[in-house]
Amino acid sequence: MEYKDYYKIMGLKRDATLDEIKRAHRKLARKYHPDISKEPDAEAKFKEMGEAYKVLKDPQKRAAYDKLGKNFKSGQEFNPPPDWDAGFEFSNADFNDMGSGFSDFFEELFGQRRHTSRSASGAQFSSHGQDHNAKVTVDLEDAFYGATRSISLQTPILDAYGQMRMSNRTLNIKIPKGIKEGQQIRLAGQGSPGIGGGQGDLYLEIHFKPHPLYRAEGRDLHMQLPVTPWEVALGETVKVPTPAGTVDLKIAAGSNSGSKLRLKGRGIPGSPAGDLYLTLSVIAPQANSDKARALYKEMADTLAFNPRIKMGV
Amino acid sequence: MSKQSVLSGIIVEETCAFTLGELSNACGMPAEWILALVDEGVIEPVGSDQRHWQFRGQSLRRVRIVQRLEADLGLNLAGAALALELLEEVQLLRNRIAILES
């Protein structure tokens, strides 16, 4: 078990006042809230910070935690000394929230009494079982073709002693063709069992891994298409990779960098299917030979082109 | 647990509609709280008679976000509703930036 430095997690000194702890908590809660933050590990940080706050805001728990000493470093192997918490009273009221996934460190120090309050928290179990939620990251191609993906979930369960434990389970799930970023899949009956027999449902929120070529917006896909100066100037047919395979695209003569083209129905399938938007990006070849330099020189002389004319220079 | 079998679900936003009771069950909150969200304009029911109200699939996600913002950050309903709308806009803009920068 690793020691957790709750002060460091909250960015506080060990002699922080209760007001300072509360302020730090409000600030960090806004920063790392999983619905707000764009940081990938926001959820883990939010939980860690919530755990730290639960201990530090409670004078009894904080005193017990402080008694462990400040010589431990975060992540260091830790075993609580026997009777470390003698003489401290904890209120059980804090421990009713289910499945918030506290660290082993927290469970070891403050978790032993959790099950004693379980029976009182029976209201959590409606006759219909609880719904569960999880986020799943899949490839964009999965939305394009549909796919079967194996996912691992940590689910809180009540064991025979009435204690909450995290249980791992693996599910094979179908990613439906045409799903969009942020949409949820409902798997009926995969949540917690209810007392009356009805199972809760499992909701999976789907997110796409960043794709090297495409970026999704709803069912539309966006992509930059590199082209040569002569392809846009003369108008030529070029090959374009789409998720459904390579297609030939006719570029209109006189197109330019930044020109947008739409390939209707070439986005994520569905009704209606999304479109594939291409933004042309003109790449000038290097003048890395005498012949290439001569060609560029000839263009300079012949075209007399000034792209900065509107800038007045 | 059933490692070999493949589970098929439905896309909530496309195919689901919720009644008031179902939405309240799904997030474990009383129906009165859902009604307050309707009054705040966070979600819009279809149908005139409250007993036959239907909420579109995407309502669930909005309701859950407001629920978490209230519980975790101590926002009131109006504040959470505003934050939800701003968050949706931020997400749209972030994605646009990513498209432009790719």
Summarize the structure.
Chain A has 313 residues and is α+β, with helices and mostly antiparallel strands. Chain A is 25% helix and 24% strand. Chain B is built from five helices and five strands, in the order E-E-H-E-H-H-E-E-H-H.
Question: What proportion of the residues of chain B is helical, as a percent range?
Answer: 55-70%
Shape call of chain B: globular
Mean pLDDT metric of chain A = 83
Basic shape of chain A:
elongated
CATH class group of chain B: Mainly Alpha
Give the class of chain B from helix and strand content and strand pairing: mainly alpha
Could you list the spans of chain B in which at least 5 consecutive residues all have pLDDT below 50?
none
Known CATH architecture of chain B: Orthogonal Bundle
Mean pLDDT across all amino acids of chain B = 89
- Order of adjacent strands in the largest pleated sheet of chain B: 3-5-4
Stretches of chain A where pLDDT is under 50 for at least 5 consecutive residues are 91-100, 113-126
Total number of beta strands of chain B: 5
Number of helices of chain B: 5
Structure description:
The complex is a heterodimer of chains A (313) and B (102). By secondary structure, chain A is of the alpha+beta class. Chain A has 3 domains: 114 residues, DnaJ domain (Helix Hairpins, Orthogonal Bundle), CATH 1.10.287.110; 77 residues, HSP40/DNAj peptide-binding domain; 85 residues, Urease metallochaperone UreE, N-terminal domain (HSP40/DNAj peptide-binding domain, Sandwich). Chain A has 8 helices and 11 strands. In chain A, the strands form 4 sheets. A 4-stranded mixed beta sheet of chain A has the order 6-7-11-10. Chain A has a 3-stranded mixed beta sheet with strand order 1-5-4. In chain A, helix 2 runs antiparallel to helix 3. Chain A starts with 5 loop residues before the first helix and ends in a 10-residue tail after the last helix. About 8% of the residues of chain A have low confidence. With 102 residues, chain B is mainly alpha-helical. Chain B has a single domain, classed as Multidrug-efflux Transporter Regulator, Chain: A, Domain 2. Chain B has 5 helices and 5 strands; from the N terminus they run ββαβααββαα. The radius of gyration of chain B is 16 Å and the shape is globular. The interface between A and B is large, with 42 and 37 residues. Strand 4 of chain A pairs antiparallel with strand 2 of chain B.
